[in-house]
Recover the amino acids of this structure.
């Protein structure tokens, strides 16, 4: 019987455990143990119910176009619980000089695929609009080296597009800065489009036509679960033997021994044939330091930012007064505490009663990690002042929920893919060791599910070869 240790009980580790459980039920001669340092499983996937509202502490959904999270949900019996965002009412605003301006029709991420709405929009200056028109004639170009998202976007559309769209959008997803994030790691499709088509606008338009022909009716942009994202965690955990899950059990170190591994957790040590580390890369670095100082150095170099979500509920009067749509993004140049806000009652209407408004505000990111040190009262005061200035919201919230996530969002800096190549080379010299999580090849929930499943399948094949 081959033994596998999984370290980390977030959705990456749970997906790995579920994949190994499938191998075991299909007759593989293996057993596994999952170690989680905290008292609960699921990491940032936490859902709370308050006053008839469904409040998400971490991610509230995932991108529909990435299939791995939805596939996992179907495997654990949640297929009928998958729901889509309310896209007919989808509008997103950008704060520009203190005023909310709607993102124009045809803008896919930050790429204009319809020139007329972009030209007529108040979001862009005349100079930026001229750059958009000229971008359609951008010649194909294959970059010699990696570059930042900001440098890439500025080459195509100018600095204004970076400030008003690229940076706010990436702050919402990564909690990072466009000037620091790698275009090859964060937006690989854009790099491929430039190499093949030149113009991102023409390439994105062609891609949209192909998608509409393949899929027929348009799918919602976001997918979630009827009873919240924690529903996925609970369903996966319910399909794993309780004896395999060790919560409140931090792992202190890993050591190579003969052809296997010794895992030290608490006052006990145990032997395994393979270890799958599904923690943030910074934590993984400390675990592997005794085995490989070079690997630890590469892992420790992957940066993380922190985030805070401030969820506020208001009455029906506020609901009717708020702008329609999904919410707004705040460029850093506007000088606000908030990075973004989501009108949850519009994005997923069933998550708040008809007489409630549920507003989810985001604070933190790579430029504002110090916000973690603020008290709840200080955070609430800053966020409410931003809401007053941006949308005139002065009402007292009916309830509030504040969640802090320290070092939860991986930052894929310039050169990230080259670092991953070096990590893969070092891992090849440590048979039986695998890595999973949001620090490597995608930070979203679907990416984490894929990461855990692929690492588990690799480990299962490795231990099978050792028999």
């Amino acid at each position: 019987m081959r033994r596998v240790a999984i370290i980390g009980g977030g959705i990456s580790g749970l997906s790995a455990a579920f994949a190994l459980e499938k191998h075991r039920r299909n007759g593989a001669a293996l057993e596994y143990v999952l170690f989680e340092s905290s008292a609960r499983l699921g990491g940032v996937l936490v859902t709370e119910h308050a006053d008839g509202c469904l409040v998400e502490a971490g991610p509230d959904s995932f991108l529909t176009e990435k299939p791995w999270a939805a596939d996992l949900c179907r495997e654990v019996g949640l297929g009928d619980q998958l729901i889509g965002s309310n896209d007919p009412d989808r509008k997103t605003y950008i704060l520009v000089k203190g005023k909310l301006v709607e993102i124009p029709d045809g803008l896919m991420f930050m790429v204009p695929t319809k020139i007329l709405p972009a030209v007529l929009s108040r979001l862009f200056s005349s100079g930026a609009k001229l750059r958009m028109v000229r971008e359609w004639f951008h010649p194909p170009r294959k970059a010699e080296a990696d570059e930042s998202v900001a440098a890439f976007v500025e080459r195509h559309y100018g600095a204004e597009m970076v400030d008003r769209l690229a940076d706010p959008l990436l702050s919402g997803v990564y909690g990072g800065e466009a000037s620091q994030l790698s275009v090859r790691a964060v937006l690989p499709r854009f790099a491929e489009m430039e190499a093949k088509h030149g113009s991102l606008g023409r390439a994105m338009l062609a891609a949209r036509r192909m998608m509409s022909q393949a899929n027929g009716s348009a799918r919602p942009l976001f997918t979630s679960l009827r009873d919240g994202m924690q529903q996925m965690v609970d369903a996966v955990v319910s399909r794993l033997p309780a004896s395999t899950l060790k919560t409140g059990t931090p792992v202190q170190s890993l050591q190579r021994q003969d052809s296997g591994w010794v895992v030290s957790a608490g006052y006990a040590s145990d032997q395994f044939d393979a270890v799958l580390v599904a923690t943030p890369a910074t934590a993984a670095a400390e675990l592997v330091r005794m085995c490989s100082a070079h690997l630890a150095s590469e892992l420790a170099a992957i940066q993380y930012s922190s985030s805070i979500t401030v969820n506020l509920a208001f009455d029906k009067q506020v609901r009717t007064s708020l702008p329609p749509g999904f919410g707004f993004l705040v460029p850093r140049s506007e000088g606000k505490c908030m990075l973004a806000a989501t009108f949850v009652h519009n994005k997923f209407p069933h998550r708040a009663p008809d007489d409630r408004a549920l507003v989810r505000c985001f604070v933190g990111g790579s430029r504002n990690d110090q916000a973690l040190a603020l008290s709840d009262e200080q955070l609430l005061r800053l966020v409410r002042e931003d809401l007053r200035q941006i949308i005139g919201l002065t009402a007292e919230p009916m309830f509030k929920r504040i969640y802090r996530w320290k070092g939860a969002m991986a930052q894929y800096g310039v050169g990230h893919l080259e670092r991953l190549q070096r990590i893969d080379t070092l891992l090849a010299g440590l048979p039986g060791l695998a890595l999973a999580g949001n620090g490597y090849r995608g930070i979203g929930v679907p990416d984490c599910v894929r990461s855990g499943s692929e690492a588990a399948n690799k480990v299962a094949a490795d231990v099978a070869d050792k028999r």
Observations:
- The longest helix spans residues 445-465.
- The domain at 304-411 is CATH 3.90.660.20 (Polyamine Oxidase; Chain A, domain 2).
- The chain has three domains: 2-42+230-302+412-465, 105-215, 304-411.
